[in-house]
Amino acid sequence: MSNTVRPPGSSHDSVKLIKFADDTTLIGLISNNDESAYRREVDRLVSWCSGNNLELNAQKTVEMIVDFRKSTVPPPPPSVMDSPITSVESFRFLGTTITQDLKWEPTISSLIKKAQQRMYFLRQLRKAKLPAQMLVQFYTAIIESILTSSVTVWFAGATVRDKQRLQRIVRSAEEVIGRSLPSLQDLCHGRSCSIAKWYKPAAGLFDIFHQDSPSGWS
């Protein structure tokens, strides 16, 4: 599918449309139990796809509600092509598992499993007597890249236990290589600062944070 055909952006501030390749996501902020703007944007997207000869796959379309109120009544799901959208407790978005309670253990466990599998190759390279610098390069490209996948999204919300599990992988790699490696905390901090500097001038969320912060941005 040509990426030159693009769905329209959201017409309401409380609803954001995010598109990556052939994945399209609508995020709606529901206030005072008023879902009208969110549902209008869903209908608008469905209508746009129909008018541009693009078929939405209702079987792969899901809705997840994040609601931390103590007493809630789930609203009826919207429909796509006369088929109600399935409501789920979690879904994978660009490789990251997002859950209703915004807990990151499923994502972290998946990353740890992948990183542990790749540690085998690091040990084999060490046995082959590769120089330490090449081992560091291998670790950075093959293992660290796994551990830091979407790290700025989930690291701050990870539990102490999960952060320790992640850091054990880093320490194991340090023992194999014989050199110190950047901690995940430092890597996350550096990337978060880079994102903040890049997006601060125009991003809507940063404007909200600026308003809520007593000191504002420096």
Automatic annotation (TrEMBL):
Highest rank taxon of the organism: Eukaryota
GO molecular function, one term: 2-oxoglutarate-dependent dioxygenase activity
Residue ranges of every copy of the Reverse transcriptase domain listed in the record: 1-98
A Pfam cross-reference name: ALKBH8_N
InterPro entries on file: AlkB_hom8_N, RT_dom
PROSITE patterns documented for this protein: RT_POL
Protein name (database record): Reverse transcriptase domain-containing protein
Species annotation: Knipowitschia caucasica (Caucasian dwarf goby)
Lineage: Eukaryota, Metazoa, Chordata, Craniata, Vertebrata
